[in-house]
Amino acid sequence: MAKPEATRNDDGKADKVATNDATHLNKLRIERMMAQPEKEMRIPERRTERHLRPAKEFNMNVMGSSAGAGSGEFHVFRATRRREYERLGMMEEEAKREEADEKWQAERQREAERLSSETAKKRQKRQKRKQNRKKQRRQKKDSSDDDDDDDDASDRDDQDEQEQK
User: Fold this and answer.
1) How many Cβ atoms sit within 10 Å of the Cβ of residue 67?
2) Phi and psi at residue 8, in whole multiples of 5°?
3) What's the pLDDT score for residue 43?
4) Which residues contact 14 (CB under 8 A, 6 or more apart)?
5) Separation CA 52–CA 88 (nearest Å)
6) What are the angstrom distances between the C-alpha of 142 and each of 130, 134, 145?
7) Which of 29, 42, 87, 101 has the fewest Cβ atoms within 10 Å of its own Cβ atom?
8) Is the pTM of this model over 0.70?
9) Residue 134 to residue 155: CA distance in whole angstroms
10) pLDDT for 133-156, tens place per residue?
11) Which residue has better confidence, 127 or 153?
């Protein structure tokens, strides 16, 4: 589809051009916005959920489909019925969303508990290995004649403990 060319009028301004091409319309909108970069733009936020009007109090004195019902009553009834079904549908959707959210939260809680228990087990393992190393170093220290070298090793162990805390 060919883009329409803007023609100039006597004032030198471009005439308005009607177009059905979405790309061209977007281009024109962007050019209009960029013509005034200092002007603040308001970008509307997306609505997250619809708000329903509260259900109307039903008038029980409305004529039915029997004799005496006017021709306009059916349209009133149909609109009321449509609004009520829409309201019930939105209530069901909300209930489904809440149920899915509760499921997700429960799953998230279970996963967090599982991860914390794994972390605790690994922490115990590290502590046990650390205690075993200390024990072995003490045994070496007791059996060895060189106290200076072992003192340096125990000092390093103490420093390692402080760094881990």
Assistant:
1) 6
2) -95, 140
3) 80
4) 6, 7, 8
5) 10
6) 18, 12, 8
7) 42
8) no
9) 11
10) 999 999 988 887 555 555 566 666
11) 127
